[in-house]
Amino acid sequence: MTSLIIVSVLAVAVLYLGLFKYKTALLPVSVTGLLAAAAMAAMDWDLEKMYFSEMMLFDNYAVAFSILLILTTLLIFGLSRNYFEKISNNVAEYYALMLFALAGGVVMVSFHNLAMLFIGIEILSISLYVLAGIRRKDPASNEASLKYFLMGAFATGFLLFGTALIYGATGSFNLAAIASSGAFESALFRAGVLLMMVGLSFKVSVAPFHTWTPDVYEGSPGLIAMFMATVVKTAGFAAFLRLFLMAFAEASAFWAITVAILCILTLFAGNITAVFQDRFKRLLAWSSVSHAGYLLLAILAVGFSASSAVLVYTIAYSLASVAAFGIMILVSRARGNDHLDSFNGLARTNPFLAFTLTLAVCSLAGIPLTAGFFGKFYVFKVALAQGYTWLVVLAVINAMIGIYYYFKVIIAMYMKENANAVAIQLNPGFRLVLSIVVFLIFLFGIFPGLIANIL
Amino acid sequence: MIEKSWLIPLLPFLGFLINGLGRSRISKKTAAVIGSASVLCSFILSVLVFFELQGSAETGVTVKLFEWIRAGSLQIPFSFYVDPLTCVWLLVITGIGFLIHVYSAGYMHADQGFGKFFSYLNLFVFFMLILVMGAGYAIMFIGWEGVGLCSYLLIGFWYKNDAYNDAAKKAFIMNRIGDLGFLLGIFLLIATFGSTDFTEIFPQAAGFQSGDGRLLAITLCLFIGAVGKSAQLPLYTWLPDAMAGPTPVSALIHAATMVTAGVYMVARSNILYALSPVAMTVVAITGLATAIFAALIALTQNDIKKVLAYSTVSQLGYMFLALGVGAFTGAVFHVMTHAFFKALLFLGAGSVIHALHDQQDMRRMGGLKKAMPVTFLTMLLATLAISGIPPFSGFFSKDEILAHAFSRDPLLWVLGFAGALLTAFYMFRMLFLTFWGDFRGTAKEKQGIHESPASMTVPLILLAVLSVVGGFLGIPEVFARQAHLLGGFLAPVFAASQEVLPAMHVPHSTEWILMGISVLGVLVSIGMAWSLYVKKKRVPAEDTVQRSGLVAWSYHKFYVDELYQALIVRPLDALSGFFYRVMDKRFIDGIVNGVGSTILAFSSTLRLLQTGRIGSYLFYMVAGIILIFLLNYLIF
């Protein structure tokens, strides 16, 4: 709880810093605040505290995902030095909005009441609508923002409608009360579950509600797209799983079929469309869709092993995405665009960047010795334990398709030449963040036990 | 000190890292000093370990380093086990290893890959030490594979020569066959005993019935591994080809240490073998057959290193004969003495080759006695030792083996004795052709003949001393009571199996007679070589000359390589060609490419759905929701 307060106060403080033009203080203050928030969150471990008449529950699940969200934001902030200054004068807004979004994310992973889930999602989403359009003079950015807002509003409608129906069926917003209401057979309840599923599916870009993803990612600034792919997706899935685990677990026989169908749709839509993309950012957007498909597999396996699997997967995915988006930003800034051809010859000019990106896409593709391998491994494992063998077979086929398009960038970097490529300059923040990411991808890829058993 | 014995392999490994990583920056002199000093330090530590072990009441000490593999109920810790058997090998590996490192500094001084060479040598010593120090079969296997890798790297050290690369590959592949057997053996051990640790397995095994089927399967599998690594019939063909490597490598890896790993493994597993009489017989017969077979080939070879290589195969055969008849101490003893004199012979041959600028053909040598006195004298001593002339070291170890063979079955002794006659003949043939008579090379070569530098001759002299006196470590009962120092030292290692096996019973009078016969026979054999190659000045015929009868068989190595080529390689080639053309090209590629193009076709269609218009996106959403509801309505 303290961490949530720190993040919120920090956001306001950053806004004030901007108001009084302390631009240089923005980053240090944010970083310090986030470190404090992460530390406070860690202190809540094993306490299982309820807050505000059971509105929020800080159990280990909430703590683990809060820390993950905060640390991922920290990594993104590490890359943001001199980034926002280039595209806007109001730098403080960025930090403040991202921190507000983070606060929304923390609420989303710790809610114990449907009202808090809704509030969390809205805090997160509204910040994002603004962030997507923050390049005010760029039409693409405006379009992204508007698209995201319109469709998001649409999806929120479904979410709220679903919440209302569930209240109607059970008479409560409280997760525990819903779980023990015994109203699982009523049509009202079932319709409510499906509608909430639709609303949440939109947030985590599950097909067929994913269509906003590539357009919004492409229009938004790179770091914001990175934030969406990592923090937002993690928070969304953590909320998704928390809701279905704590409130709807008893009715799993009912909703599992729909989740399985959405899972297949998402996997194929994401992976197959990604095959034809020739812009790296769009490719990553489609890959983010496909990762939502793998994560849905874990939701099918209700239980605490599912939490662990989702945690490992989101950690691996966030790390790899930070590296991939970060290098995409560097390359598109230095070479004009994020077309795959822009990566040609990167291995010769910037071996470190090429290596890091290789590791990142290997992790995204699920190659062993990287964290991403164990992400997929645990997700597949829990799905197999529930008897979804056929689904895992389909997922593995999709993972193989994934290797095809992920490796396109590796081929470009190592096997294609670019005669007039010059080395890209790295600032220390980038170097530090990318080194940390490389280390962690290897660490969790070799010792997955460090994170696999904490939940 | 024993608790710190992990330092012994660590030092050469550090040497490998320093020389390997800094090979473009470190000067040749520094590389040689680092490489040799690390092994010397290991040797000193090994001596300390030896004295501590001798002084302590314990028979073996386990040094646990860390948990390595834990899978279900199986636990494999990474730990070392130091007992007298390990100690003997430690001293041989680091002691002889150090001398050969020093020798290499002189021998390789003009080579471009000097630093690389020393880093590989250090790496080899590291793995060899892991092999003999491992506290279980799994750790031993790490070393086992590691020395195989180093052997491969060093045989193909001059990688620009394709023939050398082929030799390296051959060594690697032949060893893989053996390694498969070893691995199966390990799996069987795990299945039978639930562990790979010596201290877990051997006490359990001692409770088994003699002739137990599981033990038989384990011992035979392990022996296949030993056959590969120690170059026994039928997997020996890689060792003669391995002579492509630099001569110090032949001395260290392919004579003194690595090839004796198989002997070590069988000696280490003595209790398992003692309880499997069938396996013991297989070991003995394989060893004896190899000993004679290789000796027959060595009779007609003309490359000085090839003679020594076949001689090594043959001597390894004696060691396995010893193991097979239950003379475990004798086998270890022979490993030790053989390490002394065979390393010396290789290094001496290297010295000759070095002086003649890479000439290895004995038909182009001769009369080097005067020009290279140190090399000549040391090699003479080594040749006397290997031939079994008393009181040189080879006499004692070979006699111990033959005596045990006699007690098992006089026929074994007869065949072993015949092998010893052949050994004496081909060894002195080599010595006479090289050092006696007139020089048969070109005039230019003759001018360049010189004695090798001190860094090469000093190791030769030290090894010569060891070859002469090494035998006194194992003086048999017939000469003096309780004088077999090595046997006393090793007794605890073989105690359990000696209880199972029948004791050796050869009356002293018989043993005197056997010794007398073998010495006499060897002297006659040497005399024949003398009359042929010194008095009659016979020089072996050129390669182009057609040979006939047994000579042709021996000269062409009994056509074993050709046989393997026709029976195994050719059919395999044909089969793989078939799989490549039909299975891979048509079938598998067809599936893969078909899947790929299908997905691409899908992708190009599917991405058209992404129009960018919010209207159509919302349409998909609503359509999706309606379908979901419809579906759920239909199902529930």
Walk me through this protein's architecture.
The complex is a heterodimer of chains A (455) and B (636). Chain A has 455 residues and is mostly helical. Chain A contains 20 helices and two strands. Chain A has a two-stranded antiparallel sheet. Chain A has helices at 2-19, 23-43, 60-79, 84-87, 91-110, 114-132, 139-170, 175-179, 187-203, 212-219, 222-246, 252-275, 280-300, 304-335, 346-349, 351-365, 371-385, 389-415, 428-446, 449-452; strands at 49-51, 56-58. In chain A, a hairpin with a 4-residue loop joins strand 1 (49-51) and strand 2 (56-58). In chain A, helix 9 (187-203) runs antiparallel to helix 11 (222-246), helix 11 packs parallel to helix 13 and helix 17 (371-385) packs across helix 19 (428-446). Chain A has one domain. Chain B has three domains: 1-66 and 74-135; 136-555, no CATH class; 564-635. Chain B has 25 helices and two strands. In chain B, a hairpin with a 2-residue loop joins strand 1 and strand 2. The model of chain B has no long low-confidence stretch (mean pLDDT 88). Helices cover 72% and strands 3% of the residues of chain B. With 636 residues, chain B is mostly helical. At the A-B interface, helix 7, helix 9, helix 10 and helix 12 of A face helix 24 and helix 25 of B.
